[in-house]
Specification:
Blueprint (H helix, E strand, L loop, with lengths): L10 H6 L8 H5 L5 E6 L6 H12 L23 E5 L8 H18 L9 H16 L3 E6 L3 H4 L5 H15 L1 H4 L4 E8 L16 E2 L14 H7 L1 H4 L4 H8 L12 H10 L5 H6 L2 H9 L10 E3 L1 H5 L8 H7 L4 E6 L4 E5 L3 H14 L4 H15 L2
Helix pairs in contact: 4-5, 14-17, 17-18
Length: 381
């Protein structure tokens, strides 16, 4: 039996060891011609692994892809210099931490490439690194940025610091516009879809594939992927129960399972809200209470594109956060009216959010347990 890649976000490690891997390389093929892309998905959904897969493909590491879709569908002779920046680790709660993190990551790449940088600000160093990599290899550069928005979300309860971090990021990302002649592919991932005006000023060619049907299953496991890749693990479980607990996330395509939940379910052999317990921020529950939000409305919430596409630090809306953080998902799209019907993706999130809300209000464990039973009866889970 293969190993479960819990917490592993390195494509090379998964492929060189005896780990399960759900082949997502057909989506890498879609990015072959380059361009500027942005993808938003909840945390622990496989964004970092996909970004690392892009790194290995554009680096030309063919043998890692043996047996996968991309192996026979890629020009392995072409290799591109890579800049990979990640804001995923640590708590970036101040602007000084953010500036230090940017500087250290750019310096780390320049030292590895034996490139001397003269710039002082992270944005200056970033642009210089792109230009010098292009000159060194006579090849356009691939830029991969993971969790581009985390420095803002980490400071979201302190609005002044969140604004400071936003401006620092805006300065950093503005480099991408000036560096266009030197770039092959830019791919950014994050949880939130901050407006282009506030973060990506001038980067008009950025292609947001968050709710593009052709990329709907780039992260997460489809039903067929679950049944084929994890066939040996599934025999110990009720497939319908797994579906009602962990499936249901939808971005205008086939619904997918939360991969974090699936891996931990197979490991622990117990149905628990693994993702919810790991990810639910207190500030979100606090916002729901302070805004006196009526939770039953979340069963069928009608919103327009403005809720799905733009998060504004200066005007944060509960519905916006609930969707972008993964507590609500698209159940239906009324194209003629431009209206999205949102609801909880599955039982885990429905139970988890209601329980967290009751716990915040001071309800005891017995009251919460009764509420769980009522939820199952009312919604027939």
């Amino acid at each position: 039996m293969k190993l479960l890649p819990i917490g592993i976000q390195t494509f090379e490690k998964i492929r060189n060891s005896n780990y399960y891997y759900v082949d997502k390389t057909m989506f890498v093929k879609k990015l072959e011609n380059g361009g500027y892309y942005f993808l938003s998905r909840p945390r622990r959904f496989g964004k970092s692994l996909f970004l690392d897969t892009l790194k290995e493909a554009f680096s030309g590491n063919k043998e890692l892809f043996k047996g996968l879709y991309l192996y026979d569908n890629w020009d392995w002779e072409k290799r591109y210099p890579i800049i990979k920046i990640s804001f995923a680790s640590g708590n970036i709660r101040t602007s000084d931490i953010l500036l230090d993190l940017m500087t250290s990551q750019v310096n780390s790449i320049s030292e590895k490439e034996k490139i001397n940088l003269k710039g002082k600000r992270p944005s200056q160093m970033f642009l210089e690194l792109i230009e010098k990599l292009y000159e060194k290899y006579n090849q356009q550069v691939v830029v991969l940025i993971d969790e581009y928005d985390k420095p803002i979300l980490d400071a979201i309860e302190n609005i002044e610091i969140a604004r400071e971090n936003r401006e620092i990021l805006k300065d950093f990302y503005s480099v991408l516009k000036d560096a266009d002649p030197y770039l092959k592919l830019v791919f950014l991932t994050g949880v939130s879809r901050f407006s282009k005006v506030s973060i990506f000023s001038g980067l008009n060619q950025l292609n947001d594939i968050t709710i593009d049907p052709s990329f709907a299953t780039v992260c997460g496991y489809t039903q067929s992927e679950l049944e084929s890749v994890f066939e040996d693990r599934l025999k110990d479980f009720d497939k319908e129960k797994i579906k009602e607990w962990y499936n249901g996330y939808n971005w205008l395509g086939e619904s997918v399972y939360n991969p974090f939940d699936i891996l931990l379910l197979f490991d622990k052999k117990m149905f628990k809200p693994y993702w919810f317990e790991a990810e639910t921020p207190t500030f979100l529950i606090k916002m729901i209470v302070e805004n006196q939000y009526y939770l039953p409305e979340l069963e069928k919430l009608e919103v327009g594109d403005e809720i799905l596409s733009n998060l504004d630090v200066d005007n944060i809306r509960v519905e916006n956060l609930l969707f972008q953080l993964g507590y609500l998902t698209i159940k239906e799209f009324l194209e003629e009216d431009g209206v999205y019907i949102l609801s909880y993706p599955n039982l885990e999130v429905r139970k988890g959010l209601n329980n967290a809300f009751l716990f915040y209000l001071g309800f005891g464990t017995s009251d919460i347990a009764k509420t769980e039973l009522n939820i199952k009866q009312i919604f027939k889970f």
